[in-house]
Write a structure and sequence with these properties.
Blueprint lengths: L1 E2 L25 E5 H14 L5 E2 L4 H5 L3 H11 L4 E3 L2 H9 L6 E3 L8 H6 L2 E5 L2 H14 L3 E8 L7 E2 L3 H9 L4 E7 L11 H20 L6 E3 L3 H6 L7 E2 L27 H5 L8 E6 L2 E5 L4 E2 L5 E2 L4 E6 L16 E4 L2 E6 L7 E4 L11 E8 L2 E3 L1 H8 L3 H6 L7 E4 L4
Parallel strand pairs: 2-22, 3-11, 4-5, 5-6, 6-7, 7-8, 7-9, 9-10
Antiparallel strand pairs: 1-13, 2-12, 12-20, 13-16, 14-15, 16-19, 17-18, 17-20, 18-19, 20-21
The structure holds pyridoxal-5'-phosphate.
Length: about 425
C-alpha cells in the first residue's frame, strides 16, 4: 500500500480553495451563499403580487443554513415577518438584534408566555387554554397581545379543527387582552398536483373559517396559507402574506412537480438546473482529502468490508461522516465532486470518515476539496439528489448537517 503525498504540508498555497480554511479546525464546512439566498427571496418577491408580504421560515436554524445570518439577510431584503418553530428560536434572533416581527409557528409552551411578550414573539395559537393563558399573561403585563390563529383545514396536525372554530371563537371572546392579528392554515399536499382538489378543499375551509372569525368581530391584519409549493403552484392561496421556506434555500427539486423541475442528475451546472425557477443553491457541504492511498485489487474497505476493490484503486479518506449529516445510506451509493469530476463513495459512511474512489480523477492530490452537496465547476450535487439516495426529502438533509460542521457565510453584501 502506497501513501500518497504524505509529506506534503498543509499550506495556503496547496490549493486555492484553502483560502476558506481556518487552520485550527478540521477542513469540513458548509458554505452558505447569502447572495443566492437574497436572489431566491427576490424571486419570491417577483412571483407574488406587491401587496403580499413574505414571511420566510427560518425555523430549525434556517433549515440548517444558520438562522441568525439568514434572518439578517432576509430582514434587510424586506421580509415582513420571520417564522420560527418555537419561542426559543425567536429569542435567539432577538438576542442577535433582529427587529422584524417574529411568528412562532408552534405557539409556546406553558411558562413561555412572558418571554414571548417581552421579546415580541407572536405565537400561533390552536387551543382554548393557550388563548386563555396568553390572555392572562398579557393582562398581567398590561398589554393587548397579538396572536395568530391557526385553522386546521385538513392536514390534521396542528391547528383549531375547522369544524370546531366556532367554539374556539367563543373562548377568544373571553380573552379581552388578545388581538387576532393573523389567521393562517398549512397545506398537507400543495406539492402534489394529483391532490390539487384537496388543496382547494383546504383553501375553501380556510376562507370559511376566516369569514366566521370576521363575523365574530375579529379583524386580522394577516391572511396567510402558502408554503413554498402553494405560493408557486396555487396563486389563490397567497392571501396577503406567504410563508416560504424551502424555495428560499434553493430546495425546490422535490417539492415542485416534475413538469416544472429540471433533471438534477445530469452532468451540467447546478445553477443551470435551478434556473427554470431562477432559484439558486444556498448550501454547499465540502471537506478535503486528508489521506490518499493506493490499494491493490481484492481489498475490503471500511466497516464490514462492504466494498472490495476490483482493480488497483486510489482511495481518498475524507473527514466527514454521518454525525456531520452525511447519511449512512450513501454507503457504496453516493457520489462527490473532486477536481471537477464525480467520484463514488465506497464502503460504509462512518461516523466521522468517508472513503472515495478517486482512481479516475485526474491528478488528485492530498487536500483537494471534496464536494458532497453543491456546485463545483460545471458539476453539481443537490441536496435533493442526496435525499433521494437516502429515501428522504432535501429539507431533512440540510437540517441534518450537524452543528459540528461550521457554517461559512460567503457573498455577503455589506
Ligand atoms: C415550515 C413551514 C412553512 C414553510 O414550508 P416550506 O415547504 O419550506 O415552504 C410554512 N408554514 C408552516 C406552518 C411551516 O411549518
Amino acid at each position: 500500500m502506497k501513501i500518497c503525498g504524505a509529506n506534503k504540508p498543509l499550506t495556503p498555497e496547496t490549493h486555492t480553495n484553502l483560502k476558506f480554511d481556518n487552520h485550527n479546525t478540521r477542513p469540513t464546512w458548509a458554505e452558505i451563499d447569502l447572495d443566492a439566498l437574497t436572489q431566491n427571496f427576490s424571486f419570491v418577491r417577483e412571483v407574488v403580487a406587491d401587496g403580499v408580504g413574505i414571511a420566510p421560515a427560518v425555523k430549525a436554524d434556517a433549515y440548517g443554513h444558520g438562522a441568525i445570518e439568514c434572518a439578517r439577510v432576509l430582514e434587510s431584503a424586506g421580509a415582513a415577518w420571520l417564522c420560527v418553530a418555537l419561542p426559543e428560536e425567536g429569542i435567539e434572533l432577538r438576542r442577535a438584534g433582529i427587529v422584524a416581527p417574529i411568528l412562532s409557528l408552534g405557539g409556546f409552551w406553558h411558562g413561555q408566555e412572558a418571554a414571548c411578550l417581552r421579546d415580541s414573539i407572536v405565537p400561533v395559537i390552536y387551543r382554548a387554554d393557550m388563548a386563555e393563558g396568553f390572555d392572562r399573561a398579557a393582562r398581567d403585563a398590561g398589554v393587548v397581545a397579538d396572536v395568530h390563529v391557526k385553522i386546521d383545514t385538513g392536514m390534521n396536525r396542528l391547528g383549531v379543527p375547522y369544524d370546531a372554530l366556532a367554539e374556539f371563537a367563543d373562548a377568544l371572546a373571553r380573552c379581552p387582552n388578545l388581538r387576532v392579528d393573523g389567521v393562517m392554515t398549512h397545506f398537507a399536499s400543495a406539492d402534489d398536483r394529483a391532490q390539487d382538489d384537496f388543496t382547494k378543499l383546504q383553501t375553501r375551509r380556510y376562507f370559511e373559517g376566516l369569514a366566521l372569525l370576521k363575523e365574530r368581530g375579529h379583524r386580522p391584519t394577516y391572511r396567510d396559507l402558502a408554503n413554498s409549493p402553494a405560493l408557486l403552484l396555487h396563486p389563490e392561496t397567497r392571501g396577503n402574506l406567504v410563508r416560504p421556506g424551502g424555495v428560499l434555500y434553493g430546495l425546490w427539486q422535490d417539492i415542485l412537480p416534475p413538469d416544472v423541475s429540471a433533471d438534477t442528475t445530469s452532468n451540467s451546472n447546478l445553477d443551470a438546473h435551478i434556473n427554470p425557477h431562477k432559484l439558486r443553491n444556498v448550501m454547499s457541504v465540502r471537506s478535503r482529502v486528508t489521506l490518499l492511498k493506493e490499494v491493490a485489487a481484492g481489498v475490503p474497505l471500511g466497516y464490514g468490508g462492504t466494498f472490495r476493490t476490483t482493480r488497483r484503486t486510489h482511495v481518498a479518506t475524507v473527514p466527514i461522516g454521518y454525525h456531520d449529516g452525511i447519511p449512512r445510506t450513501l454507503s457504496n451509493r453516493g457520489r462527490v465532486i473532486v477536481r471537477a469530476q464525480y467520484a463514488p463513495i465506497i464502503g460504509r459512511v462512518s461516523m466521522d470518515l468517508t472513503l472515495i474512489d478517486v482512481t479516475d480523477v485526474r491528478a488528485v492530490e492530498l487536500w483537494d476539496t471534496v464536494t458532497f452537496i453543491g456546485g463545483d465547476g460545471e458539476l453539481g450535487i443537490t441536496a435533493a439528489e442526496v435525499a433521494r439516495q437516502a429515501g428522504t426529502l432535501s429539507y431533512e438533509i440540510t437540517c441534518g448537517i450537524s452543528g459540528r460542521v461550521p457554517r461559512r457565510f460567503v457573498n455577503r453584501k455589506s
